[in-house]
Amino acid sequence: MANLIKPGEVKVVAKNNEILVNIALDLNIKLDGNVTNITLDKSQPFAIKEEEEDKINWEVPNFESKKINFGKNK
Amino acid sequence: MSGIGFDAGTYHLVSCKREEGDLVYKKEVNAFLEMPLDNRFVFNMMKNAGVPLIEKEDTNTAYALGESAVNMAYTMNQIELKRPMKDGCLNPKEKDAQQIMNVMCHSLIGEISEPDEKLYYSVPANAINELTDADYHSKILNAMFNAYESEKGYKVDPHPINEALALVYAELQNKNWTGIGISFGAGMINLCYAIYGAPVFQFSLVNSGDWIDRMASKAIGEDTTTYVNREKIKADLTVENPETLVQRAIKTQYEIMIQKTVNGIKKGVEEAGKKARSEEPIDIIVAGGTSMPKGFDTLFANILDLAKLENIKIGSVIRPDDPLFSVARGCLIAAENAK
């Protein structure tokens, strides 16, 4: 019989308009196939790190007028 | 009438002006190489050889720009080109690249003859098959063009225009600006169906020239895309069974890309319903750097024919004589008629 997992111990993160759900469970299964215990593992906090490549600076930079000899005429 | 047209493409940057009635284009490749400035001798040799260079003293870095950078990357296979744009839009992670592109854009505009000259620059529609940010892209380009100043202190007045609509302006004047323009760029395919110059539907797809390079490179086991990019220019899409592995890989990817575009047209026509109806057959203009290989228009027409579109009669599939310059010309027409 599965134990009730308390709400609030599941972490939900919105990312790129998608919902990411992380659930960590400890399952104890007997050799006869019966599940004896299911618990939420609280020993390790959820570490959902933003990937390096996801860090985007959306600022509009300052540009200066600068010209060099560049470009070929058709 | 004066004005400037600017095609800000993922691979090509093209400016277009009218001088004494003639169209004048200036083109370059939107790419660069980054090198440490340790070896002054090499830097000076490159400078003397006419390689466009930017020096950044605070980081002791030099940048070789444009086609020269592509040629250097081709001979030195371990160097991958840097590209300010990806999938049709400016890459927000490449702040330095945006500064380099700013110099490239200002240089291609050159000098202007009057203050606040209208400048129309091409922008894509947001892609329907991947998350893109065309608004951010347009804002950055606007900031770049707003920063422009001529030697006399003249500024430009920049405005965005959809890349595929610019194609309709450039090529469908004799059809009352009614038809479908499709720009096959390096990063994106941009499509616009316009009636009397007003868009009925427009969209973009992210799988275009760079995608062909990536997929074909993967198929033949190349680590970088430079080799396939070169081979793509030589491709002959009229050949049913290309002899070499690389040409077979390129043709296959072209077929997939065109099929996806045709599916997009079919969906667009279905969704537009009555708005898409036209009494006359609709011509389709195909342009952009990825449409350059021989037989591209024929291959497109064949695949389109098999799709059997309903509610719309298709006329001819036309590739302009200068498919790399059409968008810039359309931007100029928009600028000239904006007053």
Condensed summary:
The complex is a heterodimer of chains A (74) and B (339). Chain A is 0% helix and 31% strand. Chain A has 74 residues and is mainly beta.
Explain what the structure shows.
- The complex is a heterodimer of chains A (74) and B (339).
- Chain A is mostly beta strands and 74 residues long.
- Chain A has a domain at 1-44.
- Helix content of chain A is 0%, strand content 31%.
- Chain A is built from no helices and 5 strands.
- Chain A is rod-shaped.
- Chain B has 339 residues and is of the alpha/beta class.
- Among the domains of chain B are: 31-82, Alpha-Beta Plaits (2-Layer Sandwich), CATH 3.30.70; 166-318, 2-Layer Sandwich (Nucleotidyltransferase, domain 5), CATH 3.30.420.
- Chain B is built from 10 helices and 15 strands.
- In chain B, strand 5 (53-56) and strand 6 (61-65) form a beta hairpin.
- The radius of gyration of chain B is 20 Å and the shape is globular.
- The termini of chain B are close together.
- The model of chain B has no long low-confidence stretch (mean pLDDT 91).
- Chain A binds chain B through residues 16, 53, 56-58, 60-74, and chain B through 13, 15, 24-28, 52-54, 65-67, 92-93, 95, 98-99, 102-104, 106-108, 110, 131, 136, 139-140, 143-144, 146-149, 322, 325.
- Strand 5 (72-73) of chain A pairs antiparallel with strand 3 of chain B, so a sheet runs across the interface.
